[in-house]
Design goal:
The structure is a homotetramer. By secondary structure, chain A is mostly helical. The first copy, chain A, has one domain. The first copy, chain A, is about 75% helix and about 0% strand. The first copy, chain A, contains ten helices and no strands. The interface between A and B is medium-sized, with 34 and 35 residues.
Chain lengths: ~190, ~190, ~190, ~190
C-alpha cells in the first residue's frame, strides 16, 4: 500500500491545525496599543505551538520520506498522532488566554506528552514493518531525542503546579532541541 | 479519467471535517478543573466522531486504492458521501453540548446512517464501473460490515428515544467493528 | 509550467469553502424538534451551495483534466474564480438566516453570476493558450451551458426583488442543468 | 530530499489562510442595503489581502518550480514564511473593522514586511543550496521587486501614523507591481 495519501492527509490535517490556531487571536475592539496587550500571551502561545506543530510536520516529513510502505495499523497509528495534535489549538488558547496559569500549562504539556508518545508508537510500528536492518530503522536509531522529550514533559507537567514558567522553559528547551532538523535521517539515507 | 484529484479533494474535505470539530471544544473561562467538566461530553463526542471520520478516511483510502478509474457519476457519489460527512461536526456538537439527549443522539445516528448509505452507493457505483469480476469487486465482496452497520444504525435511531446510552453503545460497537483495518482489500489485492 | 499545483491549490481552497459553510449551522440551544426549525432555511441554503460548489469542482476537474499547460495569466484567472467562490459561504449564510429575503437572494445570485463569468474567463484563457483546434477547445465547444447560466442569473437577480422564490427556482434550475456531468469533455477526449 | 511535500503543505496552509479570511465577513443582522455598509471596509481589506496571499502563492509556485531539492533549513525558512502569512487574516480583520485606522494599517504593513523578509530569506537559502550559477539563481536574479517591496513597506509603516490612506496606496502599489506574473522565472527557465 502506497504512502502517498497518508502523507497528503497528514499534510492536510497539520496544515489546518497550524492555521486555525490563529483564529484564537481574536480581533480587539479599539485601535490603541493597549488593546493589543491582552493578546500578547495568546500570541506567545501561538508562536510556541506553531513551532511545535512545525517540528512535528518536519519530523513526520523526514520519517515518511524514509518509509517504503504502510499498512492498516500504521494508518491508525498516524491518526492517533493527528488526534493529539488536533488538541493543540484548544490547549494553546486555554494557556494563552489565562496567562500561563498552572492547570492550562500542565494540560498543554500533557497533550505534548501524548503526541510525543503517539509519534514514538508510529515510529516503532514503521520499524516493525520495515525490519530492524532497514534504512528507516537505522535512520531513526534509538530515537534519543524522542525519549528525552517524553522524559522532559513528564517532569514539566507536575512542575507546572509549582512554577508554571519553569514548565514553559522546559517546553521551550524541547522545542529548541528539535528545531535543529533531524540530520540523523538526512545523513543516514543515501538517496 | 484519473482518480488523483478525487483522492486529493476527498482528503482535503475529510481533513477539514476531522479538524474543525475541535473548534467546538470552546476554551473555558477560568483555570480550575471544574471549568473543564462541561467539556467532558463534548470531548467524548469529539473522540467518537474522530474515530468515525478516521474509519471513513481509512476505508475510502482502501477502496480508492483498488480503483482503476472514475467517471462523472462517481464524482457525484463521492460528493454525496462528503456531504453527509460534513454534517458530522454539527451533530457531534449538538450531541455533546446536550449531554447525549435523545433527539441529538438520534440525529447523530441518522447522519451516520446516511453516510453509510452514501458509502454503499459509492462502492456499488465503483463496482458497476469496474465489473463484477474486477479485483475491486472481489475485494469489497458482499460488504458484510457495511450492511451490518446500516442495520445497527437503523435499530439505534429509534432506540435513542428509549435509552440514548444504548444507542451510543451501538454506535461504539459499529466503530469497534470497523477499527480493525479492512483486511479484505489488503488480502485480496496482490499489488 | 505544470498544472499540478494549480489543481492542488484549487482542490484545497474548494475543499475548505465547501466545508466551512457547515460552520454556519450554529448548534441550537435545546434538544427539541422546535430548536431545529430556525435551521431549516440555513440547511437548505447549505445544500444548494454545496451542490453549486460541487458543480464547480466537478467542472474544474474536467476542464483541467483536458489542460496540457498553464501560465501566469491562467494562475490569476483561476485565483479570480476562487475569489468569487470564497464569497459563497457568506452569501449562503446571509440568505439562509434571513429566510430567502429579496436582497440576500439577489446578492447570492450576483456571486453566482460573477463566479460563472470568472469560470468563463478561465476557460477562454485556457483555450487561447492551447489553440482553437486543441482537444480542450473542442471539448469545451461553445460553452452553451455556461452562457445559459450567466443569462439565467442575470434574469434572476432583478427578479429577486419581485419574487425571491422565483429567483431561487431559477438558481435550482441552473444547478439541475449542471448536475449532469459535463459529458462534452468526457466524450470528446480519447484518453 | 524531494520538494513534493513542501509544496503540498504550503499549498494547504496558503489555501486555508486565503479562505478563513472570509469568515471575518460576519453575516449582518437585517436584509437592507444599510446592513451591508459596515462590511465595506472589511470587504476591501479582504480583497487586498486575497490579492497579497495570491501573489505569495503565485511567486512561491514559480520559485519552487525552479527548485530541484530542499533540505532541513529550507523547510524551516518556508515555515517561517508561512508563520507571517498566517497572521494576515488577523491584521486584515483588525484593519477592516477599524476603517483603516493608523495603528492597524501600520501593523498590517509590518506583517507584510516580515512576510517579504521571510520570502527573501527563503529565496536566498534556495540559491545557497542550488549554487549561484543554477537556473534558479539566474531566474531570481537580484530580486529587484522583492527589495523594492521591502523598502516601500518600510516607508509605509511610519507613514500610516501621518496618513493611513497614503500607506494603503503604497501597499496597493506593491500589489500592482507583483500582479504581473513573475516573467523572470518563466522566461529564464527553458523547461
Amino acid at each position: 500500500m502506497g504512502k502517498g495519501r497518508l502523507e497528503a492527509f497528514s499534510d492536510g490535517v497539520i496544515a489546518i491545525i497550524i492555521t486555525i490556531m490563529v483564529l484564537e487571536l481574536k480581533v480587539p475592539h479599539g485601535t490603541e496599543w493597549e488593546t493589543l496587550h491582552p493578546l500578547i500571551p495568546v500570541f506567545l502561545s501561538y508562536v510556541l505551538s506553531f513551532v511545535f506543530v512545525g517540528i512535528y510536520w518536519n519530523n513526520h516529513h523526514h520519517m515518511l520520506h524514509a518509509t517504503r510502505q504502510v499498512n492498516g495499523g500504521i494508518l491508525w497509528a498516524n491518526l492517533h498522532l493527528l488526534f493529539w495534535l488536533s488538541l493543540i489549538p484548544f490547549v494553546t488558547s486555554w494557556m494563552g488566554e489565562n496567562h500561563f496559569a498552572a492547570l492550562p500549562v500542565a494540560l498543554y504539556g500533557t497533550v505534548l506528552l501524548m503526541a510525543a508518545c503517539a509519534y514514538f508508537i508510529l515510529s516503532r510500528a514503521l520499524i516493525a514493518l520495515h525490519g530492524k536492518g532497514s534504512p528507516l530503522a537505522l535512520a531513526l536509531g534509538g530515537d534519543f531525542k524522542g525519549k528525552v522529550s517524553i522524559l522532559v514533559y513528564a517532569v514539566a507537567i507536575p512542575l507546572s503546579f509549582v512554577n508554571a514558567w519553569m514548565a514553559i522553559a522546559l517546553y521551550v528547551s524541547v522545542a529548541s532541541m528539535w528545531l535543529l532538523p533531524d540530520r540523523r535521517i538526512e545523513n543516514t539515507l543515501v538517496r
